[in-house]
Amino acid sequence: MPTDLRLPTNAIVQPDKDRFLNEDNPFEAMMSRFDRAAELLDLEPGLYKVLRKPEKQLIVSCPVMMDNGEIEVFTGIRVLYNTSRGPAKGGIRFDTQVTLDEVTALAAWMTWKCAVVNVPFGGAKGGVICDPLKMSAGELERLTRRYTSGIMQLLGPDSDVPAPDVNTNERVMAWIMDTYSMQMRHTVTAVVTGKPIEMGGSLGRREATGRGCMFVVKEALAHLGMSVKGTTVAVQGFGNVGSVSAQLLAREGCKIVAIGDRSGAIYNPAGIDIDDAIAYVKKHKVLEGYGKGEKISNDDLLTLDVDVLVPAALENVITTKNAPKIRAKIICEGANGPTTAAADAILDEKGIFVIPDILANAGGVTVSYFEWVQDRGGYFWSEDTVNERLRDLMVKSFRDVLELSKQHKVNMRTAAYMLSISRVATVHRLRGIYA
Questions:
Q1: Are 36 and 414 in contact (CB under 8 A)?
Q2: Which of 12, 183, 322, 328 could make an S-S bridge to 309, C-beta 3.0–4.6 Å?
Q3: Residue 17 pLDDT more than 80?
């Protein structure tokens, strides 16, 4: 079980260099992009220092009574990166690979993601080092409640609002909400998002990230003068984000020629029936055994000759090793951090249009914001209303980033960071430094 809880490096990564201390380190990757945008914005040295540091990093021990009567102690992490624009917002993941560096990077990404779509949240992230696949429902509930108690000092509708992430779901959010509510002595639905509909969840939330990806892909195709109908798409990752992205793009007229998950990938140049594939995975849990296409590896999927590539699974799947082989015209980053910072320059040289993660997958946090608003107001919207408001916000955000990209002659990722950092920096200038 990984126990690397070292604080992120304080060394500044020079934006004009192609060498990175560790290409796979998510915090270094995020910071190299931050540095580039900060340089172009001519950010004041003091603000640079403020925005480069997380506000709070909390590490807690979570002793849990296991089903066999033995006690295991798990390590939980919660990082609040920046809350200048509003309550911290960010998911909680249960995974063996959780580290402080990763959680801090993801919290920073959430800060920029909320700012780029201009929702009034700051960024946070959390995680527990565990293998949830080896734990019973009872063990997971006890772990969730103990972790929630451990980070209780941070939580609250006005301070820190978690959501589902890797290996967590609506049920986990229900446990968190209940634990928090029991401590507050009244029901507090707005303390988490991604809850069951019956507990104050929002219609359209489950599909929101994938739907947001669909909206920005359509905008990118229009910008490049490409037709949506017949556009070939490969999707790596067939979980919630990947499957919904594939399903909605197919309904818009795209041809999904490849899909993949942890068990492997399927390629069919004639197109894959995504509804059929989703039904298969619902029954069998994985794509393995789905025979309606040629079996290929996920590495091969990334380098297929397609119009659009949607990496919607893990971090660091596009690196300096495979970036030269990528042939897609558009990359829509459904996952957080699927492209390493060192690979960015290679994709730029190849002329690939990258819709960066902090914009591409911001549909999830946008509808989380909608859920929080509905919980606070005690009035809930129709699914059509949720989807229409999501479309309007995603399209406007894409066009804002594109305009900045053209204005400064930079790629979409740099433009997205410039837009988000400038919005956060503006609030810091207005608020000043509390002393």
A1: yes
A2: 328
A3: no
